[in-house]
Amino acid sequence: RFLLPCRYCQVNVPDELLRDLLPGPVTLVLKRSKELNKDLNPFTSLVGVRIPNHPFIRELARACSGPLALTSANVSCQASTLTVSEFQDLWPQLSLIIDGGPIGDVQSPECRLGSTVVDLSVLGKFTIIRPGCALTPTVEILRQKYGLIPESS
């Protein structure tokens, strides 16, 4: 049974909703807790939480005692990379590169859209911050199964 730890963010949605969206290609934006390091997203009261459905990164997360703060391995506004060789131009700027295998179907354009980012910080509402690769099923789950209302951005 999967539950999102409430230590670093304030979860105001049912556990079942979390299980419907995570792990997977969705990033949930929630209110951060006071326990989360203040240097992570210092100018906002929100934090993005993602649990990928990839065996390597989930095993790595289990081995760590706290949250992992990660960024995508691509330049902002460019397509997501799916293999380590695709961001080879960034290697000189990185301290460590771990090849855990492809993180999606390299032939699928949808896999390069990144995660769907949805703000769930307002009770009963949601805001799509980035459509990403899982927009349609995410919105269907939020609206039809849980009755959340889209909030205009």
TrEMBL record:
Domain YrdC-like residues, every copy: 1-134
Biological-process GO terms, alphabetical: regulation of translational fidelity
The keyword Mitochondrion appears for this protein: yes
Listed PROSITE patterns: YRDC
Catalytic activity: L-threonine + hydrogencarbonate + ATP = L-threonylcarbamoyladenylate + diphosphate + H2O
Classification via Gene3D superfamilies: DHBP synthase
Gene Ontology cellular component list: mitochondrion; plasma membrane
Localisation: Cell membrane; Cytoplasm; Mitochondrion
EC numbers: 2.7.7.87
GO molecular function terms attached to this record: double-stranded RNA binding; L-threonylcarbamoyladenylate synthase; tRNA binding
InterPro entries named among the record's database cross-references: DHBP_synth_RibB-like_a/b_dom, Sua5-like_dom, TC-AMP_synthase_SUA5
Membrane topology (UniProt): Peripheral membrane protein
Keywords, in A-Z order: Cell membrane, Cytoplasm, Membrane, Mitochondrion, Transferase, Transit peptide
Family stated for the protein in its record: Belongs to the SUA5 family.
Function: Cytoplasmic and mitochondrial threonylcarbamoyl-AMP synthase required for the formation of a threonylcarbamoyl group on adenosine at position 37 (t(6)A37) in tRNAs that read codons beginning with adenine. Catalyzes the conversion of L-threonine, HCO(3)(-)/CO(2) and ATP to give threonylcarbamoyl-AMP (TC-AMP) as the acyladenylate intermediate, with the release of diphosphate. Participates in t(6)A37 formation in cytoplasmic and mitochondrial tRNAs. May regulate the activity of some transporters.
Assembly: Interacts with RSC1A1.
PANTHER family with a match to the protein in the record: SUA5, THREONYLCARBAMOYL-AMP SYNTHASE
Protein name per UniProt: Threonylcarbamoyl-AMP synthase
Organism: Buteo japonicus
